[in-house]
Amino acid sequence: ITGNSKYMSDGNRSGFTGTFNVKIENSEVEVINSTGNASNGSHFEIINSTINFNDNGNHGLSAGTLTIDHSQVTATGNGANGVHTNNTFTVKNNSVLTIQNNDCGIVSRWTLPAALHIGAGESSIDSTSTITITNNEGPGMLLKSGSLTVADGSKLTITNNEARVFNDDGVLSDGFGGGIINKGTMTLPANPDDIVIYNNHAENAGDDIYSTG
Questions:
Q1: Helix, strand, or coil here: 15?
Q2: Terminal CA-CA length for the chain
Q3: What are phi and psi of 107, to 5 degrees?
Q4: Sequence-distant (≥ 6) Cβ neighbours of residue 109 within 8 angstroms
Q5: What number of other Cβ atoms are within 10 A of residue 190's Cβ?
Q6: Are 158 and 134 in contact (CB under 8 A)?
Q7: Beta carbons of 121 and 88 less than 8 angstroms apart
Q8: Rounded distance, CA 117 to CA 94, Å?
């Protein structure tokens, strides 16, 4: 999807179904109101574009690998995870990622709930980018394995997320890590002006940060 294109998927089963390579450059993409996942495991490269994965029934932007390069990406109001990668996650070159008001529900026996789920590999957020993860009904960010480096100078905000054991629909999580669950190796900015993690809640332990890595 290139060359000032506009793509909208509204009210379908899914906007991107299957596993393939998706390159979005100098374009606008909206996948909204899907009854299932807005996408389902394709590898996304997003360059100089505006992307909205909002109000979908299950996962919002579900990817194998995900690169966000000089782009604005929003994942809000989804029934499961806002952004879900099974492998590496890269944000760079003045990108802005906003993940808010997702239910983080369990959609399969493989689902680990988190507003931002990072699966594996060597992931990174560069010094020019901004990540905001707020008001989600599950852990704010999960690093399942591998590594994540958040560079000094980046702006990372994780607030008002909640790791609960149960909601009306059943088990959401094990109740650990309201803000961050780290099961790999995570490096966060040393400058306190670059990182805000507070007012997250976990039913069992680790309101803001729960680390087993």
A1: coil
A2: 38
A3: -110, -10
A4: none
A5: 8
A6: yes
A7: yes
A8: 21
Nearest CA-CA partner of 201 in 161, 142, 158:
161
How many residues are recorded in the chain?
213
**How many C-alpha atoms does 9 have within 13 Å on its Cβ side?**
22
The residue type found at 116 is L
- Asked if residue 162 lies in contact with residue 132, where contact means CB atoms within 8 angstroms, the answer is no
Kindly tell me the sign of the dihedral angle through the C-alpha atoms of 196, 136, 184, 153: negative
What is the spatial distance between Cα 161 and Cα 159, in angstroms, rounded to a whole number?
6
Note the pTM of the prediction, 2 decimals. 0.95
The DSSP 8-state label assigned to residue 205 in this structure reads B
Q: pLDDT 10s per residue in the chain (213 long)?
A: 998 999 999 999 999 998 999 999 999 999 999 999 999 999 999 999 999 999 999 999 999 999 999 999 999 999 999 999 999 999 999 999 999 999 998 777 677 899 999 999 999 999 999 999 999 999 999 999 999 999 999 999 999 999 987 655 555 567 899 999 999 999 999 999 999 999 999 999 999 999 997
Q: What is the DSSP letter of 17?
A: -
**Nearest to 133, CA basis, from 57, 78, 64, 175:** 78
Structure tokens of 47? 């360059």
Q: Could you give the strand order of the β-sheet that contains 130-134, starting from the edge strand earlier in sequence?
A: 6-10, 28-32, 50-54, 72-76, 96-100, 130-134, 155-159, 195-198
